[in-house]
Amino acid sequence: MLQANLSNETYIKHGQLLCSSHQHWAGSPLITTNSVPDKLIFELYTAPFAIVSHGIEDDPVFNFGNKVALELFELDWDQFIQLPSRNSVESTNRDQREELMRRVSNDGHMINYSGVRISSTGNRFKIEGATIWNIIDEDGYYFGQAAMFKNWTAIK
To answer: Tens digits of per-residue pLDDT, 36-50?
Structure first.
């Protein structure tokens, strides 16, 4: 089922937008590959670091999480893409997260973000050195936000 989802045109385009938007805002490639567009989304899914994104709903819902992210949040693909992104933090930290998302919306991106996230089973982990960016196309049309982080630590 996962492969069927990622093989469709929507996810192929999403992978391209994730990469082009990261390059635009952060000034560096999200992944260092010259993959053809229909393979790029699979390379993002299997990257050795976490990548997540959410859409533009009033209460944004995750629309992509790679294998590392799914493991950290302890969800399968179908569960993850139904999760409002606000639920990736404890309820006591949601106002702080909302302010972060507003800043990213206004500035386009943030580099070197650190914060605490929570899995579906209540396990907490601290992410460090994250990059968060707006997903846009070549015309500047806004599709949501994404985050990438390579460093995390379990909180006991």
So the answer is: 777 899 999 999 999
